Amino acid sequence: MRLQNRRVLGAGVSALGAALVLAGCGAGQITQTDTQQPAVNGTYAQVKTIVLRNAAVQYPAQGPGYAAGTPAPLALTIVNQGQKDDKLVSVTSDAASGPAQISGDSAIVAGHSLVIGPANAVEQGAPAQSDSANSTPASETNPAPSSAPSSAPSSSSSSAPSSASNNSPQPGDNGGAAGQLGAGKIVLPGLKQPLWPGGTIKVTFTFQNAGPIVVELPVAAPARAGS
Q: How would you classify the pairing of strands 86-92 and 43-47?
């Protein structure tokens, strides 16, 4: 009987040891989810108060990719998170035969965004830093006319909001939130080499105030599945 108990105890210890060995082997291993990246259509970059979102080369309108010598239009959203207007001065790339052609709007108003490319590239930008100060006075100025005469003297204490209303052409136009204010088009001239989905090219965006920034742009995914 004592021998049988020893055998049962030995089997239990062996099973526990095997479980610990397997657990130790699995610790620190790279799983499939560790190497997976979220699906993001484009690149994010920032230079000072200018943010580039969903920056990419547009998916080819015809064919699976861009042949050498063909132009390549870009798609992105440029957000100005500062309190001063800026302007896109130039766009260049060593992968293209010359500087990009910029048409449409190129100014990025403070607290607003400039959309480059098709409509499906539109993305609302983050509120500017001064939005919280401007949005509150905006809500207070509306009930002022309908208030009783006793509230009229309080207008003298709201001289600060009146100065904020002078800045309303920036974030205040859209209720204190940074929204689209302009649309443009950027086309890189003839590519020096073919460009296929999965490939990237380095593009330099230069702004009047924020300065230059180099961004590695992928080819955007198709707007519709199966296209």
A: unpaired
Token pair for residue 39? 């699906």
pLDDT reading at 29 higher than 60 = no
Residues in a beta bridge with 168:
none
pTM of the model: 0.60
Taking only the tens place, the pLDDT of each residue in 1-27 is 555 555 555 555 565 555 554 445 444
pLDDT tens for 74-114 read 999 999 999 999 999 999 999 999 999 999 999 999 999 99
Helices 159-166 + 131-141 axis angle, to 10: 110
Nearest-angstrom CA–CA distance, 34 and 36: 6
Sign of CA dihedral 215, 187, 79, 119: negative
Is 121 or 16 the better-scoring residue by pLDDT?
16
Res. 227 pLDDT band, cuts 50 70 90: very low
Query: DSSP labels for 96-128?
Result: BSSPPEEEE--EE-TT-EEEESSGGG--PPPPP
Say how far apart CA 192 and CA 189 lie, in whole Å: 9
3-state DSSP call for residue 75?
Answer: strand
Angle at 114 between CA 136 and CA 125, to 5 degrees: 45
Contacts of 182 (CB under 8 A, 6+ apart): 104, 105, 107, 108, 109, 112, 114, 115
**Cβ 189 vs Cβ 203: under 8 Å:** no
